[in-house]
Specification:
alpha/beta, Rossmann fold, 2 domains, 37% helix, globular, binds phosphoric acid mono(formamide)ester
Length: 321
């Protein structure tokens, strides 16, 4: 593996899940793998889980991780080719990324979408610029359209919790929210579950919340949440803003919040959410505090997902100078 930007960088999802679970059983088996190597974690946006789980994963591999909050501590970066930099941006990514590539053996980047211009966000300008100019492997810590470390974690958690000798019925269910959120987690979850191919997969959302078909192709799509929930084994709850008329909230219909009553229609489904979650807006207290909730286990598994990915990249790459 050279980079980890999407599921397309993974040759075998089940193998990567097995590697992650092996690290969960024995975190320090590859302590020497990252000796004398450094990774830079660049954050253009906030994080709790992604930042700390990746730091712990790096430490388990003997890597030194250095965090840089670019949004708060760095120069404002320019990404437009040919930009006349007479405005607020101070340094072009073409100048900054190669320098960071000299300091680090690997760069991990979080860069959310602005949700103003669909074409710009879906071009993955920031992530692609680092891939193009840094000269070292790049790991997405969530980009404009995808969150692959989250999705790997999600598959790990599903495999831990669903062991029946049949395919699980997995429902990705839209949830209300008070502000427009990116489509990243939903896009990425859909892309990974479809690529994994070991589930009956349904995406339920209100009208006009269709996701990009590039990611959902292979899933069953419905506007009927109750029908989707029937006999579900796993319900993944997540809000996203509109994709077609980009970045809007048409409805924050509280009827779409998952409740204990709705869960009665399922096969005693386990409930997932990537966190952070707005309690009693996206998901009810009664579910989050119940035995059906997997959210803590899911977030804890972020360490093993990150460790599996970092180790695969370390094994496959030597620094190009
Ligand atoms: N799920 C997730 O990516 O959490 P953070 O935003 O806290 O990193």
């Amino acid at each position: 593996m050279r980079n980890f930007i999407s599921v397309k960088d993974v040759s075998n999802i089940n193998d990567l899940v097995s590697k992650a679970l092996a690290y969960k059983s024995a975190p320090f088996t590859d302590r020497q793998l990252g000796a004398d190597k450094k990774i830079g974690l660049l954050f253009l946006n906030p994080s709790l889980r992604t930042r700390l789980s990746t730091q712990v994963a790096a430490a388990n591999l003997g890597l030194e991780a250095i965090v840089f909050n670019v949004d708060k501590e760095g120069w404002a970066l320019e990404f437009e080719e040919g930009a006349i930099m007479s405005g607020t941006t101070v340094e072009h990514v073409k100048d900054a990324a190669p320098i960071l590539g000299q300091y680090f053996d690997m760069l991990c980047i979080r860069a959310f979408p602005a949700l103003k211009n669909k074409a710009e966000d879906y071009s993955e300008q920031v992530m692609n610029a680092f891939v193009q100019f840094a000269g070292v492997p790049i790991v997405s810590l969530e980009s404009s359209t995808l969150h692959p470390l989250q999705s790997l974690t999600d598959i790990i958690t599903i495999k831990e919790n669903f062991t029946a000798p049949r395919k699980p019925k997995i429902v990705l269910s839209w949830a209300p929210h008070i502000k427009p959120l990116p489509q990243c987690v939903a896009n990425s979850f859909a892309e990974w579950v479809n690529a994994w191919g070991e589930a009956d997969f349904i995406i339920a959302h209100p009208e006009e919340y269709e996701l990009d078909a590039t990611f959902t192709k292979g899933a069953t799509l419905t506007h009927d949440q109750d029908a989707a929930l029937k006999d579900a084994d796993i319900v993944y709850v997540k809000n996203w803003s509109t994709y077609t008329d980009y970045g809007k909230i048409y409805s924050n219909d509280p009827e779409w919040m998952l409740t204990e009553e709705k869960l009665l229609q399922t096969n005693n489904a386990k409930v997932m959410h990537c966190l952070p979650v707005r309690r009693n807006v996206e998901l009810s207290d009664e579910i989050l505090d119940s035995a059906n909730s997997l959210v803590t286990q899911q977030a804890a598994n972020r360490v093993w997902a990150a460790q599996a990915v970092l180790s695969e990249i370390l094994k496959a790459n030597t620094k190009r100078k």
